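Fill in residues.
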């Protein structure tokens, strides 16, 4: 894919008119014309042919320390500003919960951080999925946003993703990450490498940000007349950048992420079912599905699909017998998440179930006529979709 830059409004996603995590489309957005000197943006899905099992490397070369890669590229500003302090304290309000969630999404954060580094973009962009979704690949509803980058359908299609017809590439972490970074890279060029304006445009739309610049007569993203939700978005990102840049200053530790646990993109030359593949790789199914945007229901992928696999399991892929991970007949035609139910087991909580199935907690409560104080009963059947 060529990077599209220019003075016109870019295909975009817009948070300003959304309620909570929902987005709305910018009414004056038009696709930008092709750059006469396009920049090649790497896309392992499009640019890499399927690998025969015999050619999959035994184990990839060691990557840089994941946290050093992120921290060295963070340049937070205003860590002592009252609003930044407020959000930092909110993130750390429940240290055990924050630490647990960080441990869960650390492999995905490192994957995104590497992709951002390869494009020479600010590492703060790696934290956008945390603001958007805490790195959970939430399915969309209607014309709402979806995936860990919370892309709107029109924006996703404009940047090469398939949405509709039983398929939603926004839930594919590899494809969605490359689409989101293509969009951010275009905004980065459009706003002359200003990180604050780039992030504001990702949230509110480049047309809205350009109008705010013209009205204000300056380019300081923190002082532009932008909606409160966009201002909060920038503050949240600043607070996270401060936390990750110097965690010891705020009394918490980053979890270890050894090279063997770091995610690598592997393109299988045969179709596979997520559950069967997790079993064959001897990986916890919940974590594998979470890393591959298949957190809810049976999921099957065609040959040539890019999977995110821990480096330690790549040697096992070369020994896989394709029939042992083959999807059930007909399941490849149903690549969207299935509706279904869950029978409550001992130890289940509503929060854990919302993460396991990739649904929002508030949706799970509403579909089952529950509230935050409801107690689950063993054997209770919960709806996982409207």
């Amino acid at each position: 894919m060529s990077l599209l830059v220019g003075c016109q409004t870019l295909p975009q996603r817009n948070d300003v008119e959304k309620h909570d995590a929902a987005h709305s489309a910018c009414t004056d957005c038009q696709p930008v014309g092709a750059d006469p000197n396009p920049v090649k943006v790497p896309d392992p899905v499009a640019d890499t042919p399927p690998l025969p099992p015999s050619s999959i490397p035994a184990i990839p070369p060691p990557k840089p320390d994941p946290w050093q890669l992120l921290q060295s590229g963070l340049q937070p500003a205003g860590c002592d500003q009252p609003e930044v302090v407020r959000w930092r304290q909110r993130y750390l309000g429940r240290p055990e919960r924050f630490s647990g969630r960080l441990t869960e999404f650390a492999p995905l954060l490192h994957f995104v951080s590497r992709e951002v580094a390869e494009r020479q973009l600010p590492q703060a962009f790696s934290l956008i999925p945390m603001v958007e979704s805490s790195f959970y690949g939430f399915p969309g509803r209607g014309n709402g946003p979806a995936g860990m980058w919370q892309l709107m359908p029109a924006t996703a299609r404009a940047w090469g993703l398939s949405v509709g017809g039983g398929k939603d590439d926004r839930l594919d972490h590899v494809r969605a990450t490359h689409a989101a970074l293509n969009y951010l890279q275009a905004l980065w060029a459009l706003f002359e490498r200003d990180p604050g304006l780039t992030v504001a445009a990702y949230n509110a739309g480049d047309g809205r940000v350009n109008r705010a610049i013209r009205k204000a007569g300056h380019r300081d993203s923190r002082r532009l007349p932008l909606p409160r939700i966009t201002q909060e978005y920038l503050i949240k990102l600043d607070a996270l950048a401060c936390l990750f840049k110097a965690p010891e200053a705020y009394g918490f530790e980053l979890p270890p992420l050894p090279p063997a646990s770091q995610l690598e993109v592997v393109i299988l030359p045969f179709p596979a079912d997520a559950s069967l593949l997790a079993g064959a790789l001897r990986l916890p199914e919940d974590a594998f599905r979470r890393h591959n945007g298949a957190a809810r229901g049976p999921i099957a992928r065609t040959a040539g699909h890019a999977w995110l696999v821990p480096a330690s399991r790549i040697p096992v892929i070369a020994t896989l017998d394709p029939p042992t991970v083959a999807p059930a007949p007909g399941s490849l035609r149903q690549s969207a998440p299935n509706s279904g139910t869950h029978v409550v087991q001992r130890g289940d909580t509503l929060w854990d179930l919302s993460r396991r199935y990739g649904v929002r907690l508030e949706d799970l409560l509403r579909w089952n006529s529950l509230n935050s104080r409801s107690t689950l009963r063993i054997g209770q059947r919960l709806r996982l979709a409207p």
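The radius of gyration is 21 Å.
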